[in-house]
Amino acid sequence: MDISINVTDGVPIYRQIVNQVKYLVASGLLQPGEELPPIRTLALQLKVTPNTIVKAYGELEISGVLHKRQGSGTFVSDARPQLAMRDRRRVIEQRIDALLVEAYQLNFTADDILRMIRERKAAMDETGAEPAEEKKELKR
Amino acid sequence: MEHPVIDVKDLSRTFADKKALDGVSFSAAAGQVYGLVGSNGAGKTTLLKHMLGLLRATAGSVRIFGLDPVRDPAGVLSRVGYLSEERDLPEWMRIDELLRYTQAYHPTWDAAYARELLETFALDPKKKIKDLSKGMRAQAGLIAAVAHRPELLILDEPSSGLDAMVRRDILDAIVRAVADDGRTVIFSSHLLDEVERMSDHVTLMQQGRVTLSGILDDVRRDYQRSRVRFAEHFDQPPVIDTALAMEGGGRTWSVIHSGSIEQFRHSVHACGGEVVESRDATLEEIFLARAGRGRQQVEAA
Question: How much is the pLDDT for B79?
């Protein structure tokens, strides 16, 4: 699983893992039903204490992104996390605010950012979900 | 009754006229990784040696699995793996002799695991310890420390002076000890990014005292790094109560501070400034800020 840890940006490691797994699921690089690496394997790969992986998987399970199957492993859930519209908006709005502040400091306008979001989405679609999956998405 | 794996209470130790440990308390629970950080001479090695019973407590107490490691060395050491900073291995032995010798003291020795590690590290068992490179010595020492699958693994500066490959072997051994067997690990290190990755708990020692100790994520959350802009220029950093360290100049400063963001914002406002952004501080930032503050206090004293 393609996850990288950065210890210089102040984000707790378990949170970096949570965010990146969510990203991998959202972008289709991790498909519903797909199995995640066992705790030991991912800890060895990332060079982090196994308890950090336990914590990250635990949080992803609570938010409905992953689920454990008794006696086997940890899998990507079929359903998207169920949150109330208001909560879902709030999560995204916080991210947008942070993005806009950063953009302002780096001299990008809101229009630049909108264009870049579309470009990133297009790039994500190319590397991520299969065309068939895309169609299913649209019908939903 | 369950004992904590490590239980050190109010431990003090004086060498000649220098206080090496000054009222240190520390405890460790099973299945967790504890990172011990601090400058050279802060007392890390002295503390670890007390846990192994290599030093006798002059004041305070040390219990490992509820046992006194000085009075019951066999009971404690058979359940502990130790890699010393100096990797003081018997120079005249060959690697296979070292492992046989270590095995004799440890009924729980896992010969298959020892063999697997020898192969992974590509070590020649017939080689004499004195002919080994620094990295190979660390690898040989590591096998001797982990092959009996100890309940407690104590590593003193395990990565010190090693290249990235051997450092990875050491980190792998820590991960495996915890993931496979639910063992407890305590390691000291000056590589703060390594401590940040590998530790569940972190303890900072300064001048023989524990000055900061807790769950790593909690410790990190208690300290923030904020960028601040002031209306006027400052040649010297302005005084802000909760600031531990300030870097920068003129109107823009970067501040490591503790306590609540609201309180910090308030203090910054009072100096005619505003907080541009905040994030959790990294262990390195916290460590440097605390160490800098320690120095100032010494100078002031």
Answer: 93
